[in-house]
Design a protein that fits this description.
The protein has helices spanning 23-52, 56-79, 85-99, 118-138, 140-151, 160-182, 185-208, 228-256, 264-277, 283-304, 311-335, 343-368, 374-385, 396-401, 403-423, 433-447, 452-477, 532-538, 540-544, 577-585, 591-595, 606-611, 638-648, 666-673, 707-715; strands at residues 2-5, 16-19, 481-484, 487-494, 499-504, 507-513, 549-553, 569-574, 600-603, 620-623, 653-657, 679-685, 698-704, 720-721. It is of the alpha/beta class and 753 residues long. The strands form three sheets. It has an eight-stranded mixed beta sheet, sandwiched between helices. A four-stranded antiparallel beta sheet has the order 3-4-5-6. The longest helix has 30 residues, at 23-52.
Length: 753
């Protein structure tokens, strides 16, 4: 409750009236603004995809733009603190009104000039398209908390931050599960614009209830200013959960299981951790924080050593670890929060930490590391920062009296246990040596919770024992594993089979026989002669003569090149230069060298590259970009099919690889091609005894605008069938696409929830 001068009492009059702050109004305004922020990011990404493509320079630039605008919003909220709350309200409402000129939200019509650098042009496009709107909305959370503190002196404004993150979580879940599956982009734009108008009205309502007169004048902070060390601590406590959230997503999809929409879960738990840590009730946050060190010690080691035998269990463990770390470190932030008069500076430091965590995990790590080393690094950082309370108080006295001695003993024990787990000298423990070492390190680590340096020493030993040391050994080999912004690529040899494989995370991208020069030229995996693409390659001469023109989207190991014949014109479209180096330059795979020594490879987003080609310049185009968790939807829209049809001409063949563990993509192709003049058939291939030992199951769809071409292909053999049609799966366009209706396998129940 606040007391302010009554208007009838004159300037400085004595009569007063009590005004109860309208807390629900502030909650609604903050929640709605955060909801909009987490709608706009994926929405703009979907709008930009057909125009900008999916190259890493594009999406790295986009991430930096979002981070810069969020920092700008928090910085703007902090800057407004130099004015009284009424003037703050006037300035902010004016900004909301000016930003409304950018409605309805969407991309501007600007197009890059020839030679424009994407790293510069893409940020400019995004700033010009959504900059004012994003900046105005991103300032809501800290600014309205300051207004609430002015309206209700003595009432904790930090609890409103929990509402902010609940709104963010709701927006995060709503977009992929509700908004995207049910609305075209044009309708999404109007929905967001209506939400913006609602937020502006709610902010105006909050502003109307702010104190007037002397109570509204700017008051200089009276609490102690935070030291540099204090601010650095805020930044570090924000950096680690933010980085770990991104690292968890990367680690899960790279080393555990590649599942569509998996990125929603780490980000959702990260947002919910704020709601728990900043809630008015402290029991849950304090309980989880007390046991967070145990979780870090046990789950951290389990995750680094996780096997593919139980991928979903490992995913649950990784998500639980992330949530516990985020709650604990955000609870530490809450405990270190300043008085409300320095609230916006606190949130600005948090925003800086979150941005730095994103830059480290999203931009620096893929360049510096060849594996997801950021994941164990951030787990160790969490161990350094997490609040610790002695679970065995009897040991605290020894630690306080003899810290160097205790630290030395614990470190030596941790190293000894780790070495036993790695080597089992003398074979004393047999196959149980790793389990025994794990139990030993867990017991030692739990015993020293409260002695931070000793705890971290045990944690590092645990991470090295369960996967960390093996990861370092592979890195030291130099040419077995590499990494780009698209993920981690691992080359493995299997001497028993005489084969070498390339895996992108958990997805196979190619297999080659390396011991037999004759078999080294044989197409393998998804591309064997009996597969859909294999049969299409075999009918090329009869359909298009000896000079057929072939394009392939997705290079992989270059397996398809071994179908090339003299006189044919081949070109590959590959978005990741790292894949080109592996297939062509590393010497690890010989498909290109043996079968197509001088391939034409176009690096960049395939849709943009194909759209720039002249009409009727290809006879066959193979789309092989949909087998992993990250489905490039812009390659399968009606507008994309129109581009392919223009480049292929009347008789050309389009082969689409739709094998996927989690998505039923065939009905999407059916709906998208329907009514557009395409004839189509599908071949679901299973290996036979006639195929080589490295043949794998595959699903291919053949499309053409010439029924004769399709008839020739089908007549060559194989169980070609008509495409399946599902009424509940709409066509994908540049204005609408969603994977939710086509989820299959373990994720199928999501679409019915």
């Amino acid at each position: 409750m606040r007391i302010e001068p009554d208007g009838d009492g004159g300037a400085g009059g004595g009569a007063v009236r009590a005004i109860r702050p309208i807390r629900p109004l502030f909650v609604a305004a903050i929640l709605s603004g955060s909801f909009l922020l987490f709608l706009v990011q994926p929405m703009i990404a979907r709008m930009a995809l057909p125009r900008l493509g999916g190259a890493p320079a594009v999406w790295n630039s986009a991430m930096l733009v979002y981070q810069a605008l969020l920092l700008g919003g928090y910085g703007y909220a902090h800057w407004l603190g130099r004015f009284g709350v009424k003037r703050q309200a006037g300035i902010h409402l004016a900004l909301l009104a000016v930003a409304a000129l950018w409605l309805p939200i969407g991309l501007t019509d600007a197009k890059p000039a020839a030679g424009d650098e994407p790293a510069l042009w893409v940020p400019w496009l995004l700033f010009a398209s959504i900059g004012p709107l994003f900046l105005a909305v991103s300032a809501q959370a800290p600014l309205l908390q300051r207004w609430f503190a002015a309206s209700a002196p003595g009432v904790n404004p930090y609890a409103l931050y929990a509402a902010s993150n609940i709104g963010s979580f709701a927006g995060l879940i709503a977009y992929p599960l509700l908004v995207e599956p049910n609305m075209a982009l044009s309708a999404q734009s109007w929905l967001w614009s209506g939400g913006y108008a609602l937020v502006a009205l709610l902010v105006a309502g909050c502003a109307f209830g702010l104190p007037r007169g002397p109570a509204a004048a700017r008051e200089r902070p009276t609490s102690a200013a935070p030291t540099r060390g204090w601010v650095a601590h805020w930044i570090a406590l924000s950096l680690v959960p933010s980085g770990l959230m991104l690292a968890t997503s990367t680690f899960l999809t790279t080393d555990i299981v590649a599942v569509p929409l998996l990125w929603v879960l780490p980000l959702g738990l990260y947002l919910l951790s704020f709601s728990v840590a900043f809630a008015a009730g402290r029991r849950v946050a304090d309980f989880l924080t007390t046991f967070a060190p145990v979780t870090i010690l046990v789950f951290g080691g389990v995750m680094i050593g996780g096997t593919h035998e139980y991928p979903y269990l490992n995913a649950i463990i990784a998500l639980g670890l992330l949530f516990m770390v985020a709650v604990a470190l955000h609870t530490a932030l809450y405990r270190l929060r300043p008085e409300p008069d320095r609230l916006t500076g606190f949130y600005l430091a948090m925003s800086v930490g979150g941005a730095l965590g994103g830059v480290f995990a999203g931009l620096i790590a893929p360049v510096v590391f060849d594996w997801t080393y950021e994941y164990p690094i951030l787990i160790v950082a969490a161990g350094l920062l997490v609040p610790q309370t002695w679970l065995l108080p009897l040991l605290s006295g020894a630690w306080e009296r003899r810290r160097p001695l205790v630290l030395g003993i614990v470190t030596a024990l941790a190293i000894a246990i780790m070495l036993v787990g790695l080597n089992d000298p003398g074979g004393l423990l047999g196959k149980r040596h790793e389990s025994a070492a794990f139990l030993g390190l867990a017991a030692l680590g739990i015993a020293v919770i409260g002695a931070r340096p000793a705890f971290v020493a045990v944690l590092v030993a645990s991470l090295l024992l369960f996967g960390g040391w093996r990861a370092l050994q592979i890195s030291w080999e130099g040419d077995t594993r590499t990494r780009s912004y698209f993920g981690v690529y691992t080359i493995r040899d299997y001497p028993a089979n005489g084969t070498r494989t390339l895996a992108h995370g958990t997805t196979l991208h190619g297999v080659q026989f390396v011991d037999d020069p004759v078999k080294a030229r044989e197409p393998t995996s998804y591309y064997v002669p009996g597969s859909g693409i294999g049969q299409a390659m075999q009918v090329l001469p009869s359909l298009f003569g000896p000079n057929a023109r072939v394009g392939a989207v997705g290079l992989g190991t270059g397996t398809l090149a071994c179908y090339a014949q003299p006189g044919q014109d081949w070109r590959f479209y590959e978005i990741d230069p790292t894949v080109v180096r592996i297939a062509r330059d590393s010497g690890k795979f010989g498909f290109l060298g043996r079968c197509l020594p001088n391939p034409r490879i176009v690096i960049g987003d395939a849709r943009l590259s194909i759209a720039a080609q002249p009409a009727n310049s290809l006879d066959l185009l193979a789309l092989d970009a949909f087998s992993s968790d990250a489905v490039p939807m812009h390659l399968m829209t009606r507008e994309a099919l129109d581009d392919y049809g223009r480049v292929l001409g009347k008789k050309g063949l389009l082969l689409v690889h739709v094998s996927n563990r989690f998505l039923d993509l065939e009905p999407v192709v059916t709906a998208t091609a329907r009514g557009r003049g395409w004839y189509a058939a599908a071949l679901r291939y299973a290996p036979t005894v006639a195929d080589n030992s490295e043949a794998t199951m595959s699903d291919w769809i053949a499309l053409t605008r010439d029924p004769v071409s399709l008839a020739v292909l089908v007549s060559e053999g194989g169980n070609w069938e008509p495409l399946r049609y599902r009424k509940d799966v709409p066509a994908w366009t540049d204005d609408y696409s969603s994977i939710v209706p086509v989820l299959s396998g373990p994720l199928a129940d999501l679409k019915d929830d």
